[in-house]
Specification:
Layout: E1 7-11, H1 16-28, E2 34-38, H2 42-50, E3 62-65, E4 69-72, H3 74-84, H4 99-117
């Protein structure tokens, strides 16, 4: 099997907040190390069936790469910072906090994201200049 050298990020497609951050990450990821797919996409369903885990049932952002396998919640955020490198590595200082604390902060936002930011009727299409980043 060919090793994949990028981070796959499974996100909530209809979530306005999630889509905002995915668009930002597309701009910041100059080396194409991040790939994105909605958690309910055909790609995600196929991927989860070939790489089984109960983690995909969580109401949270999920990532997957060959180094760490599946990660979720705040661990994904810190993994993204590692992939982006540069100035973003400064935010890794927060990974020193207890995971229970960083995940609690993540859960507060995740549990209120639709109320605070809204929800699209369906996952919007990516900007054409970033289509190579979507699976």
């Amino acid at each position: 099997m060919k090793q994949i050298n990028y981070l796959i990020i499974f996100y909530d497609g209809p979530c306005v907040l999630c889509n905002y951050w995915i668009r930002k990450l597309c701009k910041w990821d100059k080396k194409d190390l991040l790939k994105f797919t909605s958690i309910d996409s055909d790609f995600a369903n196929d991927f989860f069936s070939k790489n089984p885990s109960s983690i995909h049932k969580k109401d949270a952002i999920i990532s997957w790469d060959y180094q760490k396998g599946y990660l979720t919640e705040s661990e994904v955020v810190f993994r993204i910072f590692k992939y982006l490198k540069g100035i973003f590595k400064i935010f890794l200082i927060f990974s020193l906090l207890p995971k229970s604390l960083t995940n609690s902060f993540y859960r507060i936002i995740a549990n209120n994201r639709y109320h605070w930011f809204g929800k699209y009727a369906k996952c919007p299409l990516p900007d054409k200049k970033f289509t190579q980043k979507f699976l």
